[in-house]
Design goal:
- By secondary structure, this protein is α+β, with helices and mostly antiparallel strands.
- The chain has three domains: 7-144, Adenine-n6-DNA-methyltransferase TaqI, Chain A, domain 2 (Alpha-Beta Complex), CATH 3.90.220; 150-176 and 332-352; 186-325, Adenine-n6-DNA-methyltransferase TaqI, Chain A, domain 2 (Alpha-Beta Complex).
- The protein contains eight helices and 18 strands.
- The strands form six sheets. The chain has a four-stranded antiparallel beta sheet. Strands 11-17-14-15 form a four-stranded antiparallel beta sheet. The chain has a three-stranded mixed beta sheet with strand order 4-3-7, with no helix packed on it.
- A hairpin with a 4-residue loop joins strand 14 (245-249) and strand 15.
- It is globular, with a radius of gyration of 24 Å.
- The chain starts with 6 loop residues before the first strand and ends with a helix.
């Protein structure tokens, strides 16, 4: 299906796509809802909030292309969403060609140009229109939409096969769980006595980071993408955390499990325990979120001292201690249930593809 001798040609963006504007919507004017709000982010498919507002940017089946913020990043949105004024709405001029596969192909072509734009050379509306991108062409010297779709469908099929194989293997290798009762006795524990909690007040400020893309997560108080702000290079001046810990952003009430080594931004609290593992940590994340949700209400501000003195409600074993094994087993059971539901869906998508 994939021709290896495909020809390519440069096109000005404005010659092959329509470029629509987003609409400014401030946080103070944003109303809670379930419509994705697309901002100039490189994370979470560009989704920065959910709202119930409506304006002229309400649209779907298109690319959101950042021309401010994380410049050049481009995401496909099959669902209806609102777009900020830092994001352009991009569609093929031939509207019959707008689908997931051709638009994802376009996203890669646009994103390949992002490194040329910086603070002194803005990716503004006019430059976006005159930006050249490389596209495959057919025998009429026009964009070859059939090739784009076939290529991305083949890529999707490869990814589905790999994912199904990995999930199948994981489902068969995790331990079989018996019918251990869900009923458990629970007890309050003083958080700071049951767990080691430390604050990272002197950790890395973003402006002090060694520049360049890397593979080590940089954790901040962000409430998306597991708290990961970006991936950075190894920092010679700062000590890396080895992971298998829970990170807390008190003022933002964000709680995540970090399985791998990472660097952290300022004012992150790190929770440790020798019995912590991936599964019981996820269980604990829910309990800790409930604990920190009381901060900043009624003048009860978030401080490390108050966090340590707070009580956390957890299941206990026969000796009255925190039952880490039960929490781990419980979450493995949940994972098994999710895998058994997810695999048939992925397999059906593979057969459809």
């Amino acid at each position: 299906m994939i021709k290896k001798d495909i020809e390519w040609k440069e096109f000005f963006l404005e010659d092959v796509v329509t470029i629509g504007n987003g609409v400014r919507l401030t946080k103070s004017d944003m109303e809670d809802g379930d419509t994705p709000f697309i901002g100039a982010s490189e994370m979470n498919n560009g989704i920065t909030a959910y709202c119930s507002n409506r304006n002229g940017s309400y649209d779907n089946n298109l690319l959101g292309v950042n021309y401010n913020g994380s410049v050049g990043f481009s995401f496909y949105h099959p669902y209806y969403a609102l777009f900020s004024d830092d994001v352009k709405r991009v569609k093929w001029k031939d509207t019959s060609k707008n689908n997931k596969y051709t638009l994802l192909f376009l996203a890669a072509s646009v994103q390949a140009q992002k490194d040329k734009y910086a603070y002194g050379y803005k990716f503004n509306s006019q430059r976006m229109k005159r930006q050249k991108i490389l596209l495959p062409i057919n025998d009429k010297n026009e964009p070859d939409f059939a090739f784009m779709e076939a290529y991305l469908r083949a890529k999707e099929q490869d990814l589905l096969k790999q994912t199904i194989k990995i999930l199948n293997k994981h489902l068969t290798t995790i331990k079989t769980l018996g019918d251990s009762p869900y009923r458990k006795e629970w007890k309050d524990f003083v958080f700071g006595k049951a767990f080691s909690i430390e604050s990272t007040n002197s950790s890395i400020d973003r402006i002090k980071l060694t520049v360049g893309n890397g593979e080590i997560p940089y954790i901040t108080r962000s409430d998306t993408n597991n708290g990961i702000d970006s991936f950075i290079l190894e920092q010679s001046k700062y000590e890396i955390d080895e992971g298998n810990v829970i990170t807390i952003g008190l003022d933002t009430q964000t709680v995540f499990y970090q399985s791998k080594p990472f660097y952290t931004g300022q004012n992150i609290q790190i929770v440790r325990h020798p019995k912590l593992d991936k599964f019981n940590a996820i269980f604990l994340v829910v309990a800790i979120k409930k604990l920190v949700s009381k901060f900043s209400w009624g003048g009860y501000g978030a401080t490390l001292t108050r966090l340590r003195k707070s009580k956390i409600y957890l299941p206990i074993d026969q000796d009255g201690e925190i039952d880490f094994e039960f929490m781990s087993t419980f979450m493995q059971r949940i994972e098994q249930d999710i895998l058994r539901k997810t695999l048939p869906i992925l397999k059906s998508k593979l057969s459809l593809t």
